Amino acid sequence: MIPSIATVCVSGTLREKLEAIAAAGFTAVEIFENDLLAFPGSPEEVRGICADLGLAIVTCQPFRDFEGMPDARRQRTFDRAERKFDLLQELGSDLLFVCSSVSPEALSGIDRLAGDFAELGERAARRGMRVGFEALAWGRHVYDYRDAWEIVRRVGRDNVGIVLDSFHILSRGLDLATIGTIPREKIAMVQMADAPWLQMDHLSWSRHWRCLPGQGDLDLSAFMQALATTGYDGVLSLEIFNDRFRAGSARSVALDGHRSLIWLLDETARKLGRPVPGAVPMPPPAPVETVEFIEFAVSEAERPGFEALMRALGFARTGSHRSKDVDLWSQGDIRIVLNSETDSFARSYQITHGTSVCALALRVPDARAATQRAAALLDVPYEGAVGPGELDIPAVRGLGGSLLYFLDRGSALGRWAEVDFQPTGEAGGGAGLTRVDHVSQTMQYEEMLTWLLFYSSLFETAKTPTQAVLDPGGVVQSQVIESGLAGGAGLRLILNGSQSHRTLSARFVTDFFGSGVQHIAFQTDDIAATVAQFARNGVAMLTIPENYYDDLEARSDLGSDELATLKSLNILYDSDAVGSFRQAYTQTLDGGLFFEIVQRDGYRGYGAANAGIRLAAQARLARPITVPSAG
């Protein structure tokens, strides 16, 4: 299939949109009519720009309110069609894209509508052009693709076909079996869009909430499998109306769009167990086995203070890099790398963001395969300086310019710690921390869908529904991605973003000069003992109000002794159908980073019920927002 994208998907002027689309690797484009109308030049100029960029113009769409018009308006409708044919020929396109009428004047009747398309097809044929008919989910009389197909079938012309759109079909929950009966030569083109499941009218849902394949909840896999049975190998085009995309970077959205189609075709081929036209060969997605290490970029000046915090949290300095100013700190199955190397990626990252997480290292079944998949998905590779005898750990660029490393146990990469680090012989007393539970990444609200797609296309993942968390300064949207949990430690990622500039999430992005890791949660088997040890070690913990514990007593079955312990140690509590959850937080460091300690007893969630309490407690300790004076 031929990947394409509509200009409505991205922001900017028409020229900026086309440049972004070409830079993302597309070779075909749909021109949205409003973009052309606003362009200060002729259609021939647009055709020339596209030719220079290597873009073929699929169509200029849509052509609205055509079929079923009463006799008094019918001729005028065909006059409009002739003018649209003129425009398409100037653009160098041969496809008139007709969406089903929403006009209150439109008349019903399959034979009447088929007659209109028969005449339109005859007029198009005289110009060597084609007609494609799409059923809008909110069409007046035609809102089911099966009715649109019946109209096209009755017309019986070679140059009149159907346009299939995943949103219009799946949002209505229509049966997909009929798709497989449509001859591939009768499919004029296919448009793709995903979307979250929402309870609202189809027009509003479509105009504001569509998203790229892999970013929503629609069953695109079933749609694509039905389409593949036809043998269709034509244009597969993205048509996304989304407020976030209109506010975001055109180049980023276009690149995401290309990545989403690459992922979608690969997913379809794997589900069918056979090649699909246009699919890029790549290794299959694999689960993340564990977070192998977390790397912090730390300046020399801040190194002593951060090391003191590591010791207070129970970590021991167990390794010293053989050639660089880098140390390995360990506790349980948690490994923290502190990097103060002057001539390094970490140093550049630290200059921009301060002391912060500059890289995550994930263990996968096959690091080489993960790297090959990342390259096929257009992820940006990274190659750092490697000294003699040191490992060259594969990596790609991740959130906010950070790095994502791939490690495995089946190669020398599994021995990274002993190869690159000399043991110090140091052993700390520990504080009961056992493993990394989850990592929370905070980003611009407009970026959330980008990073959801990045992770879900690269790894074998599951995602939970988006949640709105109340912050004293506004609402924070939160999305969880999980991988490999059934097989072991796995990976839990929480993506956070907020449209309000007053929330802690938004302030972190501003103060941090970009997106990044805002907090890391560590597991323990006995949170009371761990937090008590932290207190003895001088770790400043987040204070939780007494009102929280009064309410907890009223709504839970916890005994008075445990309630007293939770209250004295500022530990929060939650439960679900399968278990209980306890969590506590350190106070926030100067750069906005903080740590969470959790104890899971069968519980599967993340303490969402406590998030508002935690955010309010953190907000009380945060520096006040400075409001510029009117003068």
Could you characterize what this model shows?
- The protein is an alpha/beta fold.
- It folds into three domains: 62-234 and 243-250 and 262-272, TIM Barrel (Alpha-Beta Barrel); 290-423, Roll (2,3-Dihydroxybiphenyl 1,2-Dioxygenase, domain 1), CATH 3.10.180; 433-621, 2,3-Dihydroxybiphenyl 1,2-Dioxygenase, domain 1 (Roll).
- 35% of the residues lie in helices and 24% in strands.
- It contains 21 helices and 26 strands.
- It has a nine-stranded mixed sheet with strand order 14-15-16-13-9-12-11-10-17.
Largest sheet: 9 strands, mixed
Q: What fold name goes in the CATH topology slot of the largest domain?
A: TIM Barrel
Instruction: Indicate the low-confidence ranges by residue numbers.
Output: 625-631
Tell me what the CATH architecture of the largest domain is. Answer: Alpha-Beta Barrel
What characteristic shape results from the CA principal axes?
elongated
Backbone CA Rg: 28 Å
By secondary-structure content and strand pairing, the structural class works out as: alpha/beta
User: How many beta-strand runs?
Assistant: 26
The CATH homologous superfamily name of the largest domain equals Divalent-metal-dependent TIM barrel enzymes
Provide the number of structural domains. 3
Strand order of the largest sheet: 14-15-16-13-9-12-11-10-17
CATH classification, class level of the largest domain: Alpha Beta
Question: What labels would you give this structure?
Answer:
single chain; about 625 residues; alpha/beta; TIM Barrel; 2,3-Dihydroxybiphenyl 1,2-Dioxygenase, domain 1; 3 domains; 9-stranded mixed beta sheet; 21 helices; elongated; disordered C terminus
